[in-house]
Amino acid sequence: MKMKTSICFVLLLLFSVSSAEDVNVKVKGVTRIATTDENFICATLDWWPPNKCDYDQCPWGEAGIMNLDLFNNILINAVKAFNPLRIRLGGSLEDQIVYQFGEQEDCPIMEKQSDGLFGFSKGCLPRKKWDQVHEFLNKTGVKFTFGLNALNGKENSKEDKENWVGDWDPTNALSLMEYSISKGYKIDSYELGNELCSGGVAAKIDSVQYAKDITQLRNLVNLLYQNANTRPKVLGPAGFYSKEWFDSFLENVGHGVVDGVTHHIYNLGSGNDKDLINKIQDPYYLSKVAQTFKDVSESVKVFTPRAGAWVGESGGAYNSGGKDVSNTFVNGFWYLDQLGMTAAFNHKVYCRQALIGGNYAMLNTTTFIPNPDYYGALLWHRLMGRNVLSVSHEGSSFLRAYGHCSKKEHGITVLLINMSNSTTFRVSLVNDMHTDKEGGSSDAMREEYHLTPKDGNIQSEVVLLNGTPLKLTQSLDIPEMNPKLVDPSSTIKVKPDSIVFVHSKSFRAPACS
């Protein structure tokens, strides 16, 4: 019996030992395949009150904008670290919010209401809260997108309760803009409505009507903001893509009206899906959304080439994300893969739901301590430049690879994501222009940033950088994130369940010169 147990143990050991695979990652550095905005990384703030609950849990706490402690030091430091971070304030309840400006003197508090949109009554943004929001934005240097209520002036269609008809009434938005201009508040962009396009979610607007409404917003912005250099951008339609609705909207909107075509992504399904982790680590499943990114990008190119495609909101799993999944290390396989994929499909901006609030928050909803995806986003923001390069390999599909010109220095930065829990990939970067690896001889050391989960637990809320846990400093600042310096002639060892950013200064790419 003892003998049998020993044999079983040895066999188990043999099977559990991780394998290794050599992979040549080919980078085409002659031309770029796409460009992103300088501030591609974006995070959202939302309107949800504490009693927003799904699956018998209420994960928003005090993180909705009406309750959020905007003067929390960790929050301020986390946002300032991006220098700047792009933030979008919007979400499901946005089309029920009025603003306490102009003739809107009373300011109702949003409450649960069974027949209200998303189960809530109308609410109001008080002038004092708007001032506090801008105090926070000024302090942190944020590039700010504000989502406007697109249902003002509209009413339900008698034939279809979810269909809202009539022209948008811009009076309340006009009052908010006039006040903001009088106070010198900086707004990067205005977005009209939330998830009202295609089939809608709780409400919908016809594509031709929406084109008319957003043209009215454009005219309003042009009228109020005289200086074209500092004029806010106009974004829309901020919902889920369907070719018919989007093409009709873009055909009817006219050139120069929209600066960013925003669409939303929740491609992992519901937050309570027991299969969530398997989906996140399944390269085939993750690739299914690529067609959407391609289609949106092509529609924009055909109908409004001056505008860019944006992912305006994306939380992975809907209804506030997956508990003990969306806020942990494993979610980075989905999130960073999304960043790489959308950039390659010529998307300009990617807004992660949410900076704080829900299970998918980048900062812990109660302590504000950064979750693993915060650090992944910050490394992307600091390392990945605007020019996107073609990257490919013929190895396992569990190794994802994306490449950009480096942001501030010479060379390229490659993102390598190893979704396998048993295989180490020994990666060589191959320059498509040369037969030599890493594209040229140089004394410059290669910089590597290896992200792994604490104790090898992919559901850990603690991420290690080159083996050291990333923790706030004693003064509650974001820690320094220094690379490991490696001889460029050696291979890049991408361990199982790890994410690696590689900055190669010696890689000669004409697209990056």
UniProtKB/TrEMBL annotation:
Record key words, sorted: Glycoprotein, Hydrolase, Lysosome, Membrane, Secreted, Signal
Pfam families: Glyco_hydro_79n
Subcellular compartments: Lysosome membrane; Secreted
GO-annotated molecular function: beta-glucuronidase activity
GO cellular component terms listed in the entry, alphabetical order: extracellular region; lysosomal membrane; plant-type cell wall
Domain of life: Eukaryota
Bilayer disposition of the protein: Peripheral membrane protein
Signal peptide span: 1-20
Sequence similarity: Belongs to the glycosyl hydrolase 79 family.
PANTHER family: HEPARANASE-RELATED, OS07G0598400 PROTEIN
Function noted in UniProt: Endoglycosidase which is a cell surface and extracellular matrix-degrading enzyme. Cleaves heparan sulfate proteoglycans (HSPGs) into heparan sulfate side chains and core proteoglycans.
Record's protein name: Heparanase-like protein 2
Species annotation: Vigna radiata var. radiata
